[in-house]
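Q: What would this complex look like in 3D?
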Amino acid sequence: MSIISPSLLSADFLHLERDINMINDSAANWLHCDVMDGRFVPNISFGLPIIAAAKKASKLPLDVHLMIVEPEKYFEAFAKAGADHLIVHLEASTHLHRSLQSIKALGMKAGVALNPHTPVSLLQDVLMDIDIVLIMSVNPGFGGQSFIEHSIKKVAELRQMVDAIGASTLIEVDGGVTVENAAAIIKAGADALVAGNTVFSSADPSKTIQLLSEAAK
Ligand code: DX5
Ligand code: ZN
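A: Here is my prediction, written as structure tokens for the whole assembly.
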């Protein structure tokens, strides 16, 4: 059974509680929260107060994606705010192994995100320490972009690497996921799909989450 993680970035910020309740009552499994700092990515989204507020409303685990430089400065703060998964970018982490241990020591699942240009082979020596790998299938920073097709090959390659060492690492794909491409991404070896625009620009977001879930079976 695949995991669907709707992205709060595309929700209505004036009605976050309503949108989170809709996600709670849908076929979704996680709630994806995109934190952007205007430095690692050319956009600023939201930070700790919104994560803490979302935690109060969400019945699902908070899947927190940090698109920020020096993420290690904030691990404790995100743990306190209620993050269940904390995902850092490989490109923003000089001491990735240490960061993964710190995140886990704070009781969260530890994730690593890869930009579209970053090969999955760079994870070889740390894969056994990672709970979730987030393959970016768009350049991070904005919702509503088109899926980069090459990401499918990266998912398949990573699937082989994970299976080869018998790890339980989950593969999550983020960016440009649609009801149409969900099945192909899962077939390539992904376990979890993030979806922002596809869910929130649809006439019936809850139904769209259901359709994603069925397509991703
Ligand atoms: C992009 C974010 C994504 C974003 C996905 O920088 O990391 O999580 O919300 O949005 P869609 O599904 O609209 O591409
Ligand atoms: Zn994200």
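A: To summarize the key features: Residues 151-164 form the longest helix (14 residues). The chain has a mean pLDDT of 98.
Q: Very helpful, thank you.
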